[in-house]
């Protein structure tokens, strides 16, 4: 059978080519932003004010030719403004908040670092498309963990104590009195260090299956002076917990897990009868058509290049970044033996926070 040639609508083609070029620009901008983040160029512009390429090069101790190319790209992308008369570039204050102010509520530098690290196993991801399997966590460079920590630091600095814990007043009261708390999938430990600093009567344990994250978390707790009340242990929690807790948390963990069902069962068994489990996961729908848009595209990308793929590498369930919408949280928590799942009333396009109880 001879395939009929589709009729090309020139206007639609034109519109799509505009979009394709925009996306290509976005990818180039991310790579340039990652350079600016790594070499402190945004921070130098924010602290030192407008600069020519020679001035930026001198202040940031980089080569002028490279600085000039980078500044040109960032100005074309609308990240910097350019004054042709003085040949100077300015980082406007709104952009500075997002690009130069570490842990501000809108800081995106960690995302650039994370993105560049997550696409490094590109060849292995393509191979997994053809042969199955996935990419193991240990394959990703150390920058992945630094980027992740800097990205989620903005939640733990701006939301954890200000919105998330106050959204469950009975949990806050217990933490004040003295509670035993576990953070499962604690990564580099930032959330527990913040909680320990805020609630001196409570005791905290962070678990992560990835040993290098636990080594970093342990060092961070020491540095913050809370090591007497915060411990970190390497543990695959899907194999069980040995203690019972007043509060268990998972921040962006369950959709990544190799065995999310076993993980939730272990959490259920590790929760005291009157305890609370705070589960933070991705804000998404179980209908693809409701996820269509830029955030949906970003989440699917993270899933392909990390979340789904690291789970499949271990023959896991591979839920993926968008694999845990509210309906699935409900289903998996009920299956694990929990009695109630409550979505806390917080407005956040990225995440949903649930209180899950026995
Ligand atoms: C996306 S990271 C989030 C880290 C941290 N909660 C944060 O927000 O920065 C997910 C973490 O969960 C850990 N993890 C996944 N499954 C686990 C399991 N079964 N037991 C312990 N840790 C697990 C991974 O090693 C990884 O560090």
Kindly list the characteristics that best describe this protein.
globular, 358 residues, alpha/beta, Arc Repressor Mutant, subunit A, 9 strands, binds S-adenosylmethionine, 2 domains
Outline the structure in words.
With 358 residues, the chain is of the alpha/beta class. The chain has two domains: 92 residues, Arc Repressor Mutant, subunit A (Orthogonal Bundle), CATH 1.10.10.10; 241 residues, Rossmann fold (3-Layer(aba) Sandwich). It is 51% helix and 15% strand. It has a seven-stranded mixed sheet with strand order 5-4-3-6-7-9-8, sandwiched between helices. Helix 1 packs across helix 6 and helix 6 packs antiparallel against helix 8. The mean pLDDT is 97. Bound molecules: S-adenosylmethionine (SAM). The site of S-adenosylmethionine (SAM) has 20 residues, from helix 8 and strand 4. The site of S-adenosylmethionine has 20 residues, from helix 8 and strand 4.
